[in-house]
Amino acid sequence: MVSVCMATYNGAQYLCAQIDSILPQLNDDDEIIVSDDGSTDNTRSVIESYADKRIKFILNAGNKGCISNFENSIKASRGSIIFCATKTMFGCLIRCS
Questions:
Q1: Are 34 and 44 in contact (CB under 8 A)?
Q2: What parts of the chain have a pLDDT lower than 70?
């Protein structure tokens, strides 16, 4: 299982392109974990607009900062292979079979 871990904060403008580039590379049992650090833009609604069971959304209670936000997504992941994706990374995963 592959987990793609994302940490977001006011990055809604990048999310669709990023998620749309990652999803086709995942298998049905893989996952994207999005940990949001209290965004004030429409980050949450963008994530929730995807009807894909592979996407998990975590909303932090407060602003944890970049490193702790990524740690949060990694701790929630279930994969034996973990990729961390930043908001400007598109199509960066290469699946090895």
A1: no
A2: 87-97
